[in-house]
Amino acid sequence: LYEREGRFPELAEILHRRVAKASTTGDGVKLLAALGQIYVDRLRSRDDAIAVWREIVRLVPNHDKATRML
Question: pTM of the prediction?
Fold first, then answer.
């Protein structure tokens, strides 16, 4: 709904909260990857995107997409 309506700042906030509540590292990484993509594609927030991709690499050092994005 948020994405369809173009409410990307709100979607980013929701994803941040969901990451904090993720039950597994894998779930958290998937949510972080979605968040990173929103920062890159929709919000054009380079610093936030870098922080997210770095967090993914911290959690999964060989994460292909996060490594490429950095």
Answer: 0.91
Neighbours of 12 (CB within 10 A): 21
Whose tokens are 């779930």? That residue is 27
For every residue of the chain, which 3-state class applies, written as one string? CCCCCCCHHHHHHHHHHHHHHCCCHHHHHHHHHHHHHHHHHCCCCHHHHHHHHHHHHHHCCCCHHHHHHC
Tokens 């060989």 found at:
62
- Checking if the pLDDT of 1 tops 90, the result is no
36 within 8 A of 49, measured Cβ to Cβ: yes
